Amino acid sequence: MDTIRYDLRTMNRQFQLAVKQKTATANNLIALQEQSFPGIRKLFDSPVRSDGTQKWVDFTRDFWHTDCVRSGSLNAFTGRYRKWCKRNRYQFSTEKAAEVYALAKSAVVLVQKTSVTKTLVQAAADRLTAISRSVETYRSEMNKLASQLPEYSVVMEMYGVGESLGPQLMAEIRDYVHRIVGGMTEDELTAMETAIPTYARKIKDKIEALEAVYREKKFKQLLDAGKIVCRESYTLPPVITPSKATDVIPKSLYEAEADDMNSEERDCIDAGVALDNVKWWHRIIENKGFLLNGYINHYPDFLMMTNAGRLVVLEYKGGDRDNSNSREKLELGRQWDAHSGENYRYFMVFKNREVNANGTMDRFIEVMRVL
Fold it and tell me: Can you name the residues that pair with 192 across neighbouring β-strands?
C-alpha cells in the first residue's frame, strides 16, 4: 500500500508539472493563432480526448492560416473539412464549415502565409498535443493507482470530485495528515489516540473546506477562460406537487405554490407581485426545482417574470439570516447574472442590511419597477 501511495504522489507531481506546461504551451499557440487565423479558437469547444488530441488544436495544425480556408470557394472548403473530420474522427457539420469560412473571409491577419508561419504554428500545435497526451496518460494512471486505495470510494463520493480531482486529493492527503500530526505535542498525540473519530472529523472538515476553496478557484478560472458558459437548459414543469401549498397570493405561475415561506419571505413576494410590471412568480422547491449550478448548487427562493420578458432570480435573507454560504451564493448569482444575457437578473435581498448595490428590500423594489 505504501508503494502505491508513493507512486501516486510522484505521478501527481509530474501531472501538476505537465498541466502547467500545457497551459503555457496552449497560450503560446493561441498567441500565434491570433496572428494567422484570429478568432478561430472560439469556434471549437470539443473536449480533450483520451489520447490528448483536441479539435481546435488539430484544426489549427492543418489549417494554420486563413488563406488555407478562404483561398477557394465555400463548397471547396466544406468538402475538405468533411474529409478532415472523417480522417481525424471529429463530428462534421455544414453549419460549422460555413461559420469557419465566414470567419476566414472577414479576418484581418498580421502575418502572411509563409513557410515560417507554418512551421511556428504547426510546431506549437504538435508540442501542445504531445504535452496534452502526457497529461491524459498521467490522469488515467493516477486513477488506476488511486482505485486500489481503501479511501477511494469515500473520496470519490465527495461533492465535485471526479476521476481527475479525486486521485490528486488522495495523493496529498497522507502528507497533509502527517503535517498535522507532526506538529502535535506528546500530550496532544495522547489526547488524539483517545478520540480518533473526533480528530478524523476535524481533518475531514478541513480537507472539505480546502476542497471548496479549490472548486471556487477552478470554477472562476474556467469561467474566465470561456470553458464554462450559461445556456438555457432548465424547463419549468407543467405541474408541481408541493407537500404544502397555497393559492392565496396572486400572479402565481401555478395554481398553487409551495407554502413553506416564513412571514418575511411572504412579505417580500407580496411586495413584488404588487408591482404592475410583474407577470408571474414561483416559489422554488428546495433541492428539486430551478438551481444555479456552479462550484456550489444554489437553490434560490423565487423566480419572477416581468411583462418585458425579464426573468428575476431572487434569494431573500430576512432579518439577520446571513448564513455561512451567503457569500458563495451571492458571488455565483452575480456570475450567472453577468453571463446569462440582458433578460436575466439575480438579486440577494436582505430585509435591513445592504450587502450589495440592490441589497435592501426598498432598493430591490425600486429596480423591479423598471425591469
Answer: none
Tens of pLDDT, residues 171-211: 777 666 666 666 677 777 777 777 767 767 777 777 777 77
Residue 327's region, left for phi above 0, alpha for psi from -120 to 50, else beta, is alpha
Q: Which three cell numbers stand for residue 350?
A: 436582505
Long-range pairs for 39-45 at CB < 8 Å and ≥24 separation? 39/103, 39/107, 40/100, 40/103, 40/104, 42/226, 43/96, 43/99, 43/100, 43/103
Closest-CA residue to 104 (of 39, 188, 177, 198): 39
Task: Give the Cα separation of 125 and 231 in Å (integer).
Answer: 30
Burial label, 235 (beta-carbon count in 10 A; 0-12, 13-18, 19+): exposed
E-assigned strand segments in the chain: 245-246, 257-258, 278-283, 292-293, 297-298, 302-306, 311-317, 344-350
| Radius of gyration in angstroms for the set of CA atoms belonging to the chain, rounded to a whole number | 27
3-state secondary structure of 269: helix
Instruction: Read off the C-alpha cell for 322.
Output: 446571513
Contact call for residues 192 and 184 (beta carbons, < 8 A): yes
CA distance 135 to 131: 6
Name the grid cell of 164: 481527475
> How far is Cα 74 from Cα 97, in angstroms, rounded to an integer?
8
User: Does the pLDDT of residue 94 top 90, yes or no?
Assistant: yes
* DSSP string for 272-296: HHTSTTEEEEEEPPTTTS--EESSS
- CA angle 138-141-142, nearest 5°? 80
Question: Cβ distance 46 to 56 under 8 Å?
Answer: yes
Cα 198 to Cα 209: distance, rounded to the nearest angstrom: 17
Under 8 Å between Cβ of 43 and 33: no
Alpha carbon distance 341, 231 (integer Å) = 10
Provide mean pLDDT across the span 17-41.
Answer: 92
Supply angle C-alpha 63, 20, 124, rounded to 5.
Answer: 25
